Amino acid sequence: MAKVKKVVITAYGDESVLAVVEAELAGPAAGEVQAGVEFSVVCGSDVSMRRGTYPFQKKPPLTPGYSVVGRVLVNGSGSAKFAVGERVACLSKYDGQAERINLLEKYLVRVPEGVDGGEAAALVLDWVTAYEMLRGSAKVRAGQKIFVHALAGGVGGALLRLGKLMGAEVYGTASAKKHEELRALGAVPFDYSNKDWIGAMQRLGGVDAVFDPMGYESFDESYSILKKGGVLVGYGVNLPQWTKTPARPVVPTVLKLYARNVAFWTGKRTTFFGVLRSAKYFSPDLEQLLAWLKDGKISVPVKARFTLDEIREAHREYERGAGVGSIVIEVGR
After folding, report:
1. pLDDT value for 240
2. Among candidates 193, 268, 256, 192, which has minimal Cα distance to 223?
3. Which of 29, 129, 236, 329 has its CA 20 to 30 A from that of 46?
4. Residues 124, 40: contact at Cβ < 8 Å?
5. Cross-strand bridge partners of residue 62
6. To 5 degrees, how large is the angle CA 118–CA 166–CA 169?
7. pLDDT per residue as tens digits for the range 259-310
């Protein structure tokens, strides 16, 4: 047993329900590895869990932390792939905002030495999500037009950068104060607070793919700007969270999205994406992104860094929505 400091969501609510406590952690079970956590992130999933709106989540008390980067401390029985001291990354979903974590060895990916650990932690969820939607769900090719909601967010920013890397023309929504920075990255941004983007995209003849994390009415609007042969990729139902309105059931929303495919004569397609660490391509995709990060082919913007003890401020920073990039938690160096 080891004593560890960790974040706990004690109940559903605002930032005040977050606590930092000391608890005991058992050694790794068979097939597991115990890692000393260096970095985690605060993402939309963590915030939704705090509010109690994340689909099929655990009930409080729970420790959030959807992704981690750390070093192997102890190998459990049957685990020998990684040496003690090696740096690894994992899509943990829970328990990442703690000094130590037990993880199944089969879900660990080696992190190259020399890369920024905070940037690597951001790759695990946001960038793998973006990469797999672009390459798998939408099969984006050079010269195509794509539309990205929340261009300045973690996943949205990754979609922008990877989309440009693939040769796509990138359009999307963001707050007006972020437009100059987004234009410098090669995007064509529209103000999210109005619907001017709908007419503008329709006048351009529509887009080949839309990436929409909001759900509900937003899915209908996104569908309206698709060209024939285009695809709408939903990957969240965050509109109530962002507009501070009551949460609505997830399943009917996703079913409504898929029901659009009945109108096959439009040539348009819809799908919903959720990242899975057990998926065939998850580990290879994360390895590819880590290699690109090491080689300088991609850069991962981090807009703020906090310690475990500053977890409430980290959540407030997420709620403010200022800046461009990910929010990193520095757990231990």
Report:
1. 67
2. 268
3. 29
4. no
5. 9
6. 105
7. 999 988 899 999 999 999 999 999 999 999 999 999 999 999 999 999 999 9
